[in-house]
Design a protein that fits this description.
- The strands form 3 sheets. This protein has a 4-stranded mixed beta sheet. Strands 1-6-7 form a 3-stranded mixed beta sheet. It has a two-stranded antiparallel ribbon with strand order 8-9.
- The chain is 21% helix and 41% strand.
- It has a single domain, classed as HesB-like domain (Hypothetical Protein Aq_1857, Chain: A, Sandwich), CATH 2.60.300.12.
- The protein is α/β, with parallel strands linked by helices and 125 residues long.
- It contains 3 helices and 9 strands; from the N terminus they run βαββββαββββα.
């Protein structure tokens, strides 16, 4: 095992997911993270509230909250940190992703490279 987490959450991300979970009144619910093709750089992060993981999802549990990782996104998200940021104009989840090659000027989409699938197998044990 390499010790690399699939996804780390900052305290702000945990707190925001916890707020969403409390509003859902479903203790097993979590935030599902996937990627969709789009934007000028190639991919956009897609986040949806989910009552439970879909078959094949990896489940990241941290400080009592759950994030479900779409299997097609795993190779692109491995080793990322998810944060929640608010400022005067916008609020939302952001990613510090070591697999990111570039991003578009507006910050809405990113170009990503996948990690070696063997790394994923080592992490899953």
């Amino acid at each position: 095992m390499t010790g690399m987490p699939i996804l780390k959450l900052t305290e702000a991300a945990v707190n925001r997911i916890r707020q969403l979970q409390e509003r859902s009144n479903k203790p097993g619910a979590g935030l599902r993270v996937s990627l969709k093709e789009g934007g000028c750089a190639g991919y956009e992060y897609d986040m949806q509230w989910a009552d439970e993981p879909k078959p094949g999802d990896d489940v990241v549990e941290q400080d009592g909250v759950k994030v479900y990782i779409d299997p097609a996104a795993l190779l692109y998200l491995l080793g990322s940190t998810m944060d929640y940021q608010e400022d005067k104009l916008k609020a939302g989840f952001v990613f510090d992703n070591p697999n990111q090659i570039s991003a578009c000027g507006c910050g809405e989409s990113v170009q990503l490279k996948p990690v070696d699938p063997e790394v994923v197998e080592k992490i899953r044990g």
